[in-house]
Write a structure and sequence with these properties.
Blueprint lengths: L5 E5 L5 H10 L9 E4 L5 E8 L4 E5 L2 H10 L11 H10 L4
Parallel strand pairs: 1-4
Antiparallel strand pairs: 2-3, 3-4
C-alpha cells in the first residue's frame, strides 16, 4: 500500500496541470478505468485513479460524467481519443514530470 497522501477530488476542481497529466495517462478516455469503492460514509463511489510522484488521486466521476468530460473537451476528438496536437503539447510541457 502506498504511503502517498490520497486525494479524493472532482475533476473540474483539479489543477490544470493535473488534468493535463491525467489526459496523457488516459488518452482514450476515462470511463473504462473507473474503480468502485466505499467512501467514509459507506456510500458506493466511482473514481478515476491517478498517481503522481507526490500524491495518489481518486478523481470522483460516474461513467456518465466521464463520458461528458471527454465529449466537451476540445483536446479529445469525436471518437473520444486525445488529439495528436494536445498529446504532443502536454508531453512537451510535462516531460520532466
Amino acid at each position: 500500500m502506498s504511503t502517498k497522501p490520497r486525494i479524493l477530488k472532482d475533476y473540474e476542481k483539479l489543477d490544470t496541470n493535473i488534468q493535463e497529466l491525467i489526459k496523457l495517462e488516459y488518452p482514450n478516455g476515462f470511463e473504462d478505468h473507473l474503480v468502485m469503492f466505499n467512501n467514509a460514509d459507506g456510500n458506493r463511489v466511482s473514481a478515476l485513479p491517478f498517481e503522481t510522484n507526490e500524491n495518489y488521486y481518486l478523481v470522483r466521476m460516474t461513467v456518465a460524467e466521464a463520458q461528458e468530460i471527454i465529449e466537451e473537451d476540445d483536446d479529445y476528438d469525436d471518437d473520444g481519443n486525445l488529439t495528436e496536437e494536445a498529446q504532443e503539447e502536454y508531453e512537451e510541457k510535462h516531460e520532466d514530470e
